Amino acid sequence: MGEMQIDDMELLRQYARTQSEQAFAKLVSRYVDLVHSVVLRQVRDPHLAEEITQTVFIILARKAGSLSSRTIVPGWLCRTARFVATRTLTTQFRRQRREQEAYMQSSSHDESHDVWSQIEPQIESAMAQLGAADQNAVVLRFYQRRSFKEVSAALGTSEAGAKMRVSRALEKLRKLLFKRGVTLSSLALAGAISSHSVQAAPVGLASSITVAAVKGTSLSASTLTLIQSTLKLMAWTKIKTTLVVGTVALLVVGTATVTYTQVQSAAKSTAYSFAGYATPEASIKSMLWSGSRGDFKGFLAACTPEQAQRFKDKMAGKTDDEVKKLAIAWASSLKDYQITQNEIISDDEVHLHIHATPSADGLRNGKVIVIMKKIGDEWKQDGDL
Description:
Layout: H1 3-18, H2 21-43, H3 46-62, H4 73-91, H5 93-106, H6 114-119, H7 123-127, H8 132-143, H9 148-155, H10 159-179, H11 186-196, H12 205-215, H13 221-232, H14 243-247, H15 280-292, H16 296-301, H17 305-315, H18 320-333, E1 338-346, E2 349-355, E3 367-375, E4 378-384
Helix pairs in contact: 1-2, 2-3, 2-4, 2-12, 3-4, 3-12, 3-13, 4-8, 8-9, 8-10, 9-10, 15-18
């Protein structure tokens, strides 16, 4: 374990044991620019970015005693920042879109920022599609400009291994951006991220965050609500095992329970049928049909290439029988489902609000929002909110 990681975790443990304001202030000072930059790129509202940045560190304070000793703190903070920002934008989508447009119109970019101006609107959504290990590698190397020696120490690998991890992660990120219409070399991408991804947070923000996180004072009603709803959904940080968690993550709005289905039976379901992929609703039906049959390849056919690869990565090392059972379990958890809302985001993206019968081994409150994207003439599942 590297020196940087030990130092971060020692500060967290010290804070968890003694509520040391000094220890927590060091962590805030170290990473406030990083978190604020990640959030601001997503929400495009400086005031909202400060509130979300504060929320992220309050969540860190409340989870200080439960985080694994292997946690890469800057990577964890970036993931949490994206998660909280996305939650906020989901509930304030229309208002935030107007504010984003106003911000973009008032922002000036000279020629030296041309590359970054292409990347900035897309970088955080693309980063969110990387696995945690790849995100950690990009954050350490480019967001924080750490040496490969420091990266290898933090990731617990050799310098050669760290270079390979960073290189592969950067290439994945480049490909994701290319699919969003941003064409850059890996070298240009690395340079742009290193130069522009972290900007100075507003003066005084670190101090106000520390006081709010440690003493819990001066918190607005909106901040308290955001903290409480986010903490309920923090099981997303533990996505490691089952297909149920990997596919839709089952991050449920309201009581916010993440369900881990225990497979008791591999019996086929006859409640579904193949409907093709011409509409988002048909694609979901076809996916469930394949899952109910234990047909993992058919299941993947209803996904975007990125989502399919995430599923394959999560199933690595499992036997065919284990994969089959997990696919059947996921389909069973959405038995008797209903699509209650088709939220149109753009011509090639919709969000399906799905309710299913609550059960002990399925969705506890029966709610999930699935992202559907159009590829050519077909609609495919691309994760969830």
